[in-house]
Amino acid sequence: MGVSSKKTISVIGLGYVGLTTAVGFGLKGYKIIGVDLDKEVIAKINRGLSPIYEEGMEEALQDVEVTATLDYGEVLGSDISFLCVHTPANSDGSVNLDYLRGAVLQLVDTLQAKEGPHLMVIRSTVVPGTTEGVLLPLIKDRPNLQICVNPEFLREGKALNDFMNPSRIIIGENNAQAGDWLYEMYQSFNCPILRTDLKTAEMIKYASNAFLATRISFINELGNICKKLGIDIYRVAEGMGHDERIGKSYLAAGIGFGGSCLSKDLEALMAQSRSLGYEPGILREVHRLNQEQPRRLIELLKKHLSPKGKTVGILGLAFKPGTDDVRESRAIPVVEALLQEEARIKAYDPKAIPHFKRLFPRIEYATLEEVLKSDAIIILTEWPEFERVDYKGKVVIDGRRLSKAKEASVYEGICW
Ligand code: UDX
């Protein structure tokens, strides 16, 4: 086979962000070397299978040249490495940099043998000042190594689409040559490309997610007030959304935000803010309200039924439809509260049961039909199939605005 004319890049960390970045640039014509620690992930990708449930990913994997490996040495076949390793939260909410620092050190060690220039692109989410203060020092005596920051704004379930159609590209740089290098890779994307210093790029990611979280808690707070006034918050949101300064999206009131990013990034930003001696009052309330919504839902249930000894059915465990991910799902605090109330739980989700079962092995997982036989039903994820259910004669507490559920004999929306 002839030598590929395609340029080769490497991607370190093949989770949601890394795999999407690898496949996305693969679709743009690059040859990809993907490095990960998880042998199962590597084996799946090399068989053209997607280790994550993401719309269109498996099909796209057939059209790209992505080779997954355990071996950092393969990175020497590329001149640019995107670091997409996960940066989980420490117990105090701050960002755990162990994996990212380890990946950079592995790269620096691997690149000892390399004379020519190599660009490391930090795509993992790190609080402002991290690249400059923690990662740059790791390459300080290596003039041929450069670093840039390039945050991602990918939504789970739409990650590949969001990669191929970004609303903006952010490039954080500490010198123009490195920035130019990365800029060249994004030339073909049809969107604004902003070039900033390193920590501004890092802050744009956190500020964006903190704003999205604030928007959700805002509409949930207004929903809680509107419920007491007998006003439909969804009509209010519709009226608000015509103002282009407000916009129509991200105003769906309900049981709150889940997912691996919004809460984690909000808490990391608050932890950093407090370490700088500033108490982030608004962000603190955004987080508190999001923690409170599930409790509010249980109080609504108790208005209609004493949970102790009763069977409570849960429809939806994933943190949102279109994914099997249960990280920070609002179903977690709801199940915890129901267990405290000594209810018997029957749960159904079209995709997320295997992941949820690892957290709650002892609750009962059932079919949709079985769950509907429960004494009361709680809706926590707005899967389309839940709009095709017969709720007549049921007691339904709705956390996600399923219009069909209004036919129930007892229907309560969490904030409508
Ligand atoms: C989010 C950001 O959207 C994305 O830009 C960032 O890169 C990662 O975090 P994601 O967590 O995948 O993406 O999901 P998203 O679609 O934003 O939803 C997050 C949570 O907010 C879900 O639990 C969803 O149910 C909830 N949500 C979203 C609402 O409750 N109301 C809304 O109007 C929108």
Question: Nutshell version of this structure?
Answer:
The chain is an alpha/beta fold. The chain has 14 helices and 14 strands. The N and C termini lie far apart (63 Å).
Keywords:
alpha/beta; single chain; 8-stranded mixed β-sheet; 6-stranded parallel β-sheet; binds uridine-5'-diphosphate-xylopyranose; 14 helices
Overview of this structure, please?
It is globular and about 70 Å long. The chain is built from 14 helices and 14 strands. The protein has helices at residues 16-27, 39-46, 57-62, 98-110, 130-135, 159-164, 176-186, 198-229, 233-241, 262-275, 281-304, 331-340, 353-359, 368-371; strands spanning 8-12, 31-35, 65-69, 80-83, 118-122, 145-149, 169-173, 193-196, 311-315, 344-348, 364-365, 376-379, 395-398, 410-413. The longest helix is centred in the middle third of the chain and has 32 residues, at 198-229. The model has no long low-confidence stretch (mean pLDDT 96). By secondary structure, it is α/β, with parallel strands linked by helices. The chain has an 8-stranded mixed beta sheet, with helices on both faces. Strands 11-10-9-12-13-14 form a 6-stranded parallel beta sheet. The chain folds into 2 domains: 8-196, NAD(P)-binding Rossmann-like Domain (Rossmann fold); 233-416, 3-Layer(aba) Sandwich (Rossmann fold).
